[in-house]
Structure formats: C-alpha cells, structure tokens
C-alpha cells in the first residue's frame, strides 16, 4: 500500500469518526504527481476503506485502469487540482452543520472573529473574515465545476473551500494533513455558527 | 460463525456507536434463504452481540430451534421479508431524532433537497422528495404490521423505511451494507431536520 | 479481579463513552451479598477505573478495610440497597440532559409516550407514564437520603431512579446489566425531552 | 519517553476524543521542575502527539534545545507557571461551547448551582458561584498575558481557568489529572449553559 493510499484510508476513518462520511457519501483524493490523482472509487463506505478502494485518475478524471469507477464527483476534485497546482489533497464530506446552514439560502457563508481562521492562507490574525462560497447542488458535475471555476476567477482571494447546498463541503490543501486541518477548522466554525443561531 | 451472524454483530456495533440501540432496544436481521431469517434474540444489548444472540426464524417468525426467543418485533421484520422478496436485511433502531420528530405528530415525514436522497431507489437526483410513513406505536405487533402493509399497498412507490411514533425506525435493503447505508442516510437527514427546526 | 469489580470497571468505561462520568464525578456499586457492597472509591476518574479503585462497604457505608475512602455519596447507594432487597447494582452519573432539565425546577419529571418506558417494572406498554422524582442538591448526604426515603414511602409505585438538581441521576436494577439498561433508557428519554423543548 | 511526555500525549488524545483540539489548535504543558516546562511544539495535531512533539522551555518560554519551536501561546502557559508556583499542568483547548458563549460578549461567565463546582478550590459546596474571566482575543501574546495577570491581581480569589473570546479556554491544576479534571468540569458546565440558553 502506498503512502498516499494509507493517508486516504486514515483520513476516511477520521472523517467517519466525526460523522462526516455517512451512507457511502463523501470522497477523498491525493495528488500523486502533477497529472495523476489517487481518489476513492465510486460507492463503498469512506470510513471503511481498503487499499483496493483507492484508484488512479488523470486531471480529466479518466481512470488509469480499465474497469475502475471513480467517485461520481471526481470532476470536482480534478477541477481543484487543475486550477491550483499547489493543491496536494482534496476532501469532500457531509456534515449536519454544512447541510443545514447551506439550506438556509444565500451564495456565501461569512466566518469572522474565530481564532481558527488562522488555519487559512493570508489570514494570520483572528480579526479577518473568510467568505465560503455556497453553490446550488447540481447532478451535472461539469456544469457545477464550471460555476465553481467562474466564482474562483471573480474572487479577489480564493478560500480553499466551498459548500454545495444540501450536499456537503469541499476543502483542499498542500497535502493530506493540511487538508484535514482545514476541514476540521471549517467544520468547527460552522458548528459554532449553527449553535449561535439556536441561541440568538 | 456464519457470515450473516458476523454481519449482524458488526452492524449492531456500528449502530451502537451512533447511539441507535440504547437499553437493549433495536433489532437486526438478515435473510438466509427465501424462507429463513437470522434475527437478534429477545433482550440483550444489540451493541454487544455474541454469536449465540443470533437465532433463526421462518417467514412467520417461528423460531427454528426449540427454546429460542426471537425479538419482540420479529413480526415487523418478517412482514418486510414477505412483502419484498428482494429485501435481504432489515435494521430497527432508536435515535433521538426519530423519537422527537415522530412525536411532533402527523402520519409522514417529508425529506427533500438533500443529496443523500440519492441513497433511495428511483431517486437519482437530489431534487426529489421521499415520504417516510409514521405509524402510531402499538404493542400488538400483528396489528401494527397490518397497518404498515395497508400503507404499502396504497402507496404509489414504497420507500424502504418507516417510523413508529415515539419508538424508532425500520429500514431495509438488498443486503446488510445496503440497509446500513440507508439507515445512515435517513438518520443523517432526520438529524438535519431536527437542527433546522431549532434554528427556524 | 472479581466479576463484580470487572462489571463496575466495564460499566464505568461505558458511562464515560457517553460522557456521563466527567471530572471524577459519578459512582458505581454492586451488591456482593445481602450486607456487603462493592463501590468505587472517592476521587479517581470513573471512566479509567482499576481494580484497586473498587472497595467494599457494609449497608451503613462503613469501609471493610481500614484506610479505604468510599465515594462521598456512598450513603445514597446504601439507602437504595437497604430499601430495596432486590437491588443488585446502583449507578450514579452526570449528564447534560439531567443537569439542565433538573435545573428548570419542579420536584418531578414526567416521561410518557416512549417505547423505552418498557424498560421499567410494571410498565409493559408505551402508554404509561413514569414520574422521576427530582430532589434539591444537598451536601448533607444522610439528610438527602432521608428526603429520598420519604418520597419512596409516599409513592404508590417507586420508579427505580431519581434526579438530584444540578447534580445527576441515580438508577438501580437487579444486576449491573439491568442498571445499565435503565440508565441508558432514562438518559435517552431525557435527551429527547431536552430536544423537544428546543423545538417547541 | 518520560512520564511527563506520556501524560501530555494521553491528555491530548483524551481532549481530541472530546473534540477539544481541532485543526492543530490547543496546547498542553507540564512543569518538570520549578523553572522547566514540557510543552507541545508549534503545529501538529494535539490528538496525534508523538514524543518528539513535546519540547522543553524555561519560564520565559525560551526553548532549551536549539531549533525547537514551542507553541505560539507558550507565553500564556508560562504566565500561569510564573504566577502560580503550585501549578503543575496547563491545558488549552477549543470547544464549541467555549467559542459560542465567549462570543456572546461580556468579560466573565458566571457558573452557579452545579455539583461540579466542587472541582474548584475553596468551593466545597454546590451553592457557590465561580466567575470565569473572558478576555478579548489578541495575537500579541505578551499583551494578552499582561491583561490576564492584571485581572488576577484584582481578583479576590483566582479561579484556575479563563476564556479567550472566540478562541478557547485555559485551565490549570497541581498535576495533569487535576488539570484534566477541571477542564472536563468546566466544559461540562459550559455545555449545560449553552443547552439552557437554547431552551429558555
């Protein structure tokens, strides 16, 4: 088992302990080389991954081995790797906080005043605000990726994450530890946002 | 230990980690052959199952070994296996979300706009709605099963799950992984429903 | 290690997984013989018990070995064992639900319409109601036990559990599995009660 | 591996199970001798510590080995060790309850009527109130420590804990078990406070 596969399996278990990969949902990937990605195959519970559940695709999402079926949302992982050469790992999960907050409407969620904002590039202080884009869900993955890419082009600074309404979150980083750290940070802050709305 | 028994024990542990089999409640079964079911015996904590806690019954719920006491709700498992020849596994759990939402009243819970709806047959897109029937609790299991069967007959399309008010959820699938996946999907969406009601 | 000690250690770990024995709070006991009780010693985290953390006391709470310091609330365990000869195990835990609901005021919490009510003696149907007494907290344990004993004498039927305001819950059963089952059932229903108050 | 390092690693794992060290946040330390502290290094996930993640600093926070990078908030740990000679361990974590409650505003959080208040010095009864100071977040650690020290000087009695707004909690005790116990007690009571605000 390669290091990349081991990292994906371990990350899947950690996400599962948080409840972020329910019902075979979610997917995880790592960039093996500039044009080669290791990604979880379609179906299968991401908290119970075995080495054979990790396959290889190119930057267009085409499987490198005949018969392999990559995750349905492979196009979103590849979109991140194509736009951001420094991206080394991408995580997609489903949490109750992400699902509920994104269903409240709007095309973005703003997070400010949290110490954990320091987990994001260009934000060395808690005094900043990050704006997480929220996209309407779409089963047409190329169309969804086109909408995501358009928002990236328009943004002054791209936050390494976005939400799909009623669906889940995409987060990336230079490697798997960085991606996991950003995912934990965002999920923590979104959980705080949800708790705040219950009280206020 | 047979594969079916191992699957039941593992599923019980997974449900227990979620808190879905409290206080010896809940029950799990697998179809061994068209007319033979492996099911958890009465009593005993479903998160701490041993091989001897899994017994065999026929489609009428009659134990195949003298002295075995099947779960009290065996009749509901058998009702599913009799109505749906393709059903290979049935899970019954108790969660706070199921208990609280079902006690709010009504004879159904509608779920729409969730990506996880794709876990259900005939629903390839998140744009659909599934309607989960809710039945009043009843200690007379044959009578309860009759009410459930009647609703199935009237329904245009049967969703592979239903709720019993103040009690729990029944979910089934072609095999244990499919049943577990649908249970996780429903519990996730019901948890979202409950969170939404706290905020709105 | 005796079976009783092993049962106490395992129950402590299970309660800890639920978060019911925070900060060295909580205590667990088992009746070894009509007049001899095995109980957790004072201090020490009940989720990390070792065999030496379980000591023996008589029905008046007097340690059987010189130098042993029983739990501060030993008198409440002994009160249960003295009043109820059939009691074989007593569990005391602290949960957020118990703490918050008891602080809302009142001298009882009523639970009705839950399937899990079947876990309690004389209640074969979900249609019943159990009334859990709630007592004001008191550092004078003999005085608190006197108040508890008085409520038992006045009650038509004694429910095998009670709450201490802002403090925790006491539950008992014929043996440790029975006590654990009743504790899980009560905590589950109290969690539902708390969720209901957030929504309604 | 020294006992102090083992204690730090185990405490980090326990805090991680609670979700209190998300995204490499949080830090843990133990006093090795009057002027020497073992503390977690900068970066790295505190739930996945290895022996090499624990370094040594003096009471001014200066690393004892060239090249070591102590946690960014080392100054706050050292502030506690300098002011309180009896302090033997300091824990810093991030929880949703701490983050949300501190963001509601105010310079203190009052806790009263909880049995778990007995975990704090000079408070042998549940009838007391403790006042947890809340400080505005500040990336200038010496300035933040100065504000904390000033509040300690003015206080009649110092509670061994304080909150940093939108950031986290600092707790200390004579040794790691004592610090962990106080952290669990405070987090439990703060979780109750948050639940209460949802209901009332």
Automatic annotation (TrEMBL), chains A, B, C, D:
Q: Report the domain of life of the source organism.
A: Bacteria
Q: Which UniProt keywords apply?
A: Amino-acid biosynthesis, Lyase, Metal-binding, Methionine biosynthesis, Zinc
The Class II aldolase/adducin N-terminal domain sits at 6-194
Provide the cofactor note recorded for this chain's UniProt entry: Binds 1 zinc ion per subunit.
Reported cofactor(s): Zn(2+)
Q: Which GO terms describe its biological process?
A: L-methionine salvage from methylthioadenosine; pentose catabolic process
The terms under GO molecular function for this entry are: aldehyde-lyase activity; L-ribulose-phosphate 4-epimerase activity; methylthioribulose 1-phosphate dehydratase activity; zinc ion binding
Q: Which Gene3D superfamilies match?
A: Class II aldolase/adducin N-terminal domain (3.40.225.10)
Q: In which family does this protein belong, per the annotation?
A: Belongs to the aldolase class II family. MtnB subfamily.
Record-linked NCBIfam families = PRK09220.1 (NF006672), salvage_mtnB (TIGR03328)
Alphabetical list of PANTHER family matching this protein: FUCULOSE PHOSPHATE ALDOLASE (PTHR22789), L-RIBULOSE-5-PHOSPHATE 4-EPIMERASE SGBE (PTHR22789:SF8)
Full protein name: Methylthioribulose-1-phosphate dehydratase
Species: Siccirubricoccus deserti
Gene that produces this protein: mtnB
């Amino acid at each position: 088992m390669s290091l990349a596969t081991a990292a994906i399996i371990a990350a899947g278990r950690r996400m599962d302990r948080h409840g972020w990969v329910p019902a075979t949902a979610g997917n995880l990937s790592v960039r093996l080389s500039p044009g080669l990605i290791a990604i979880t195959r379609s179906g299968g519970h991401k908290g119970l991954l075995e080495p054979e559940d990790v396959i290889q695709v190119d930057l267009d999402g085409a499987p490198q081995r005949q018969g392999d079926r990559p995750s349905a949302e492979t196009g979103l992982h590849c979109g991140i790797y194509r736009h951001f050469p420094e991206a080394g790992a991408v995580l997609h999960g489903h949490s109750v906080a992400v699902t509920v907050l994104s269903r409240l409407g709007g095309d973005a969620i703003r997070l400010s005043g949290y110490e954990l904002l320091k987990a994001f590039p260009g934000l060395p202080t808690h005094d900043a605000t990050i704006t997480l884009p929220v996209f309407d869900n779409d089963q047409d993955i190329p169309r969804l990726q086109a909408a995501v890419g358009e928002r990236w082009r328009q943004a002054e600074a791209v936050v390494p994450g976005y939400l799909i309404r009623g669906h889940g979150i995409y987060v990336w980083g230079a490697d798997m530890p960085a991606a996991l750290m950003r995912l934990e940070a965002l999920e923590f802050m979104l959980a705080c946002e949800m708790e705040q709305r219950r009280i206020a």
